[in-house]
Design goal:
Number of strands: 7
Shape: elongated
Strand content: 35-45%
Largest sheet: 5 strands, mixed
Structural class: alpha+beta
Length: 156
């Protein structure tokens, strides 16, 4: 996902970029095409890129264990500047050289989409329940606890 910034006039510019999730080296959970709507705002000494990215993912529900599809979306802003001076440790701030004419947002899109995967994956289907795998063995009372069970009953 690259944008040519040579001869870019000052002001706002909008792009729609797409790339296969495998080329972006996204996790195997992602499938298909990742799409990014990018707005570049160029001023005299910097370019601010606002990105809205999305890609379909196939996940396993943490509650019922079924596979489901979901659209993962991420928004982020990156700043590209032609400033001389100290290196900045900010992950979303990049120093451009005067002869740079391409901005590559592939790594940022992959990183932000990966971070946008929910920690708790739920399919949100109406019949999504925690499976009950109890057996007769689970329902039987251990004979060692039987006397304690009788004590509880006598108190009631």
């Amino acid at each position: 996902m690259q944008i040519n910034i040579s001869n870019l006039s000052e002001g706002a510019h909008t792009y729609e970029l797409s790339e296969d999730s495998r080329i972006l080296e996204l996790d195997n959970q992602f499938q298909g095409i990742a799409v990014a709507q990018v707005t570049l705002e160029k001023s005299i000494n910097q370019i601010v890129a606002t990105v809205h990215a999305s890609c379909k993912g196939v996940f396993v529900c943490d509650r019922c264990g079924r596979e489901y599809d979901d659209l993962v979306t991420a928004r982020f802003t990156s700043v590209y500047a032609w400033e001389e001076g100290e290196e900045n440790n900010d992950d979303d701030f990049y120093i451009l050289q005067p002869d740079d004419n391409i901005i590559d947002i592939s790594d940022s899109v992959a990183e932000y989409l990966t971070l946008a995967i929910p920690l708790k994956l739920l399919c949100n289907k109406s019949d999504c329940e925690i499976p009950n795998y109890s057996t007769e063995e689970d329902d039987m009372i251990d004979p060692r606890w039987e006397k304690l069970q009788k004590l509880l009953k006598t108190r009631e």
